[in-house]
Amino acid sequence: MSHIAELPLWASVLVSIFLLIGAGLTLIGSFGFYRLGSFYDRLHAPTLGTSWGAAAILIASMICFSVLQSRPVFHELLIGIFITITTPVTLMLLGRAALYRDRAEGNPEVPAMDPPKGVIEPGAAQE
User: What percent of the chain lies above the pLDDT cut of 90?
Assistant: First the structure.
């Protein structure tokens, strides 16, 4: 049996609004993921959709269970912190790995790596 039926109307409306916002932001992020062409462009859309969409869904969960249990429920904050920290780091590492792979394969669409400072490139004029 579900205890959601015991949720007051004001809380139900508030939870529904946050769930719709979260689902909408996640959907927008997935459309961006679908529409953008290159791997590097696709790194940005899911980050925002995941972070803000998950935040709205977690707020809805906090409101729902705080009202049902008659006490503040903050367990979802740990999930939010975890998502906020891990998503950008993971996508940065994926981007660096793809950049390394593309440079190793000699992909002409990827800019070449700059030489370290103080290293003279072959064929460069010396003063």
Answer: 21
